[in-house]
Batch of 3 targets.
Target 1
Amino acid sequence: MAKKQPAVRSTSARSRDRGRATRHRLIEATAELCTERPGAEVSVAEIANAAGVFPNQVTYYFGSKDSLLVHAAFLGLLHDARRAERVGRQAPDAATFRRNIARAVLAMPSLPSVARALAAAISKPELASVVDRHLQLLFRQSERFVSQLIDNRSWSTRRPLSMEVRTFWSTALGAVLLVRAGVHGTAAELDLAGALTIYDESGPA
């Protein structure tokens, strides 16, 4: 019996793969540019050049530069959050964890870009759904991390995990927004560790 020849992938499937690869390159390149130049304006031409694509592909795949910047900002935040998780895992007790994770989050290089993304979503409602999708992904990632940590170490929280995570990130992002809005002081003056209710057996009930 003759062997069946493997099916040739359709042109549309290959086109979708190329599209996903281009989107990924654009997001990665934008995230790198924003990290290298925090607070600086990044042009479409610079983004396209860094990604090795044509400038009109920014609007083709994302609709606008602002939408791409939102995707890139949250990609950077998710990467930074994973690095912060590694810091958190090294803590010997819950009190040290609260201090270390708060310090690591406030030092994240992606936070200024995320603050700009949040501000853009306020002024441009069409970006709100993009921001919401990324925030929900961040919350889920953080919930998994905290759930594994407290299960492995027999720690506890005084709030449901979903509320714990959302309270923590809302406090951190709110602090950055206030600083960027020109409010006197710095994010480092915030007691972000106090936004966490994670304790070990020796902590308060």
Target 2
Amino acid sequence: MTATRLPDTLPDNVSAQLAALTSSDLHQLRVQWRKLMRNEAPAHLTRSLLLRILAYKVQELAYGGLDRESVRYLDRIAERLAAGDPNPVPPVPDPRRGRLRPGTLLEREHGGTLHRVSVIEAGFSWQGRTYQSLSEVARAITGTNWNGPRFFGLRDKDSPARKGPRRVPSASDGDRGSVGAEAGL
């Protein structure tokens, strides 16, 4: 067995747990699996794979798991595999795409009223209230569940998200301009 060098940036307790795992034999890894996973380790898993899964679990418990978007992405791959899709891996979403910067102004007419929503650091501002998501704003405006980006015209129903709202210069912004979007009118 070769020694694995652990990164110096890990906290001592996580580093010690990972070091203990790397020096464990197959039986000890299966015992550790029962402790961490609360069930028996699959018999077909090799020592190397048990070690990697347990190391991930230790780090997940210490630092937290995958974010919601990553879990959804992996679920889509699993669904495509189960359906027999020959190309199960969808394109990786670009985190910069569709992200709205503070100062963006979104406009949408609904029920004969023009609604203006400002993107702020803490989320979205509409009628003096702060919301965590555009979907919350759309729900407050309409009283029904809506996909917020779709409601404000940032995403078409059958196509991926557009790059974002168009830039609209404002006299108060000088050369930089502000960002605005009109949708659903």
Target 3
Amino acid sequence: MHVSREHLESVVSKWFDGSISDYKCEALASTYLERQDFRLYKYQNPFVSSDSIARFFSQVESNTMSLCAPTMFNDPFDGQFTVPDWVDPQALYWMRSATDEIWRIGCLTERNNSLLMWAHYGASYRGVCIEYDFSKFSAIESHCMFAPVMYRDSRPEIPESVITKSYKGHAIPTEDQNQLSKGLFTKSPAWKYECEWRIVRGCPKENRNSKYLSFKMPPIRKIYLGAEWRTPCIDSDWIYHALCEICEPRGIDIIETHLNAKSYTVDIS
């Protein structure tokens, strides 16, 4: 069964509206990912300081990812809704604060050879790209939401009930939280090149003072090093050998990428 990205996004929209079950949406997402061997990727820039290198090594060792609050993203439209004109600006602030308090988010992509992703999120090819194996991952068992981002020209509409309740200071019930979370999976078509997937997890009350939440990820299969990662600013030999000591016992391949000498492509050995 062939499932296109566009069809999957339409199914995810129905999932948020409640017309498709969690199990059916997860099954279709799995069918879609099967065509690329269930691989998804995370670009990041760990080589900027000794602290960031230590965090990167720790996350590889523990097989975790730091999910972050929505306001930590670089796009101010992220998580925003189409809101009626009559809504008080204070309510808008409340909704954004509520979203920031409730969820933590992790971002992934379908491609490990995207020039734009290497440039924007891989620190101009000086960072890394981590490959995860989602073949046995279950969002239901992991108590999270997991789906592709929907690229739409319009923001999702916010339920009027959520706006009304915000004035009364009520806790947000589960059904309204589901409606609010749709904004976390909807972005402008300007970001379509990212082919993004998201993991969204509710933030426990005891963690809400932190913008980050550690999340257990599926197995890491490969770590791709950016084509420009070896710079005079870092001890690349030490980093490489230290990373090997972590990855080899875990069966993780380390791959150095290169800029193709003739075309605008990244060579992955």
